[in-house]
Amino acid sequence: MRFPLFLGTAVRLFAVAAFILVGAATGFAQDAAQPAPAPAPAPPPPPPETVLGSINGQPITQADLELALGDLDQQFSRLPMEQRRAAAMSAIIEIRLLAAKAVADGLDKTPEFQRRIEFLRERTLHSAVVEANVAGKITEAEVRARYDQEVANTPPVNEIHARHILVKSKEEAVDIIKQLDGGAKFEDIAKAKSSDGSAAQGGDLGWFGPGQMVPEFEKAVFALEVGAYTKEPVQTQFGWHVIKVEDKRTQQPPAFDKVKDQVRSVLLREKYFALVKSVRAGAKVEIDDPELKKGVEQVEKSQ
What we know:
The protein is an alpha+beta fold. It has three domains: 96 residues, no CATH class; 58 residues, no CATH class; 93 residues, Chitinase A, domain 3 (Roll). It contains ten helices and six strands; from the N terminus they run αββααααβααβαββαα. A four-stranded antiparallel sheet has the order 4-3-6-5, sandwiched between helices. A two-stranded antiparallel sheet has the order 1-2. The termini are close together.
């Protein structure tokens, strides 16, 4: 799957790392026997236009700070808000000072810089149009409807609760089947003779569905009725098995709350590429390099 650029990348703020480490060390120094007091509720942020400071006379506003907070790495997301704000402010100071030096040195006039600025501008506009026309228009009701549709279109799948006894030779497996035919308890034989890690649990493999076992084992176990065991040993790459089915049930779909973010991502991807396709239909796109053109066509077919 190719992810669109609007997902973005986080800005890595190396100079802030020392600040974070100091904060972490302070936390570890607290007496572990003393329970931490409940955190006080965070005050509401000031209005975006609030001036928080300045650099060489240029104001730093709350809006600037919020923008920097959004670009902090995920590693900062668990910090208390005051530490995050301080890290963001430190980053703004460093960025603005070094940006001013870059301008003084004429680095903003180089062709490479101009290309990068134009690319960043276009990527930001790309994100804005995706947010306005795709992400911002996906509703909870639409996500739920798509979930219900997928559940309705998915054929029921049987799950099986089974046990097995794994031995090295066919002769051992045949002897075990004879013992079962004579009334021996499956769990007792599994604990005594199985070489599998499930032996201690009486060979219990728990619940599983299609595709979770090797083909030979799956074919044999799904052919059994509840309470039955294999009358012939089953050979796989692991050895020889005697298998018993304890129960069967229909696999239940995952709860909506557990998969709604995945469903939203599916809708987002579909709507994003539909938007790209509609816009591209009215554009004249030419790729002169034959190999590059072929590669792009293959990528677009996979979308």
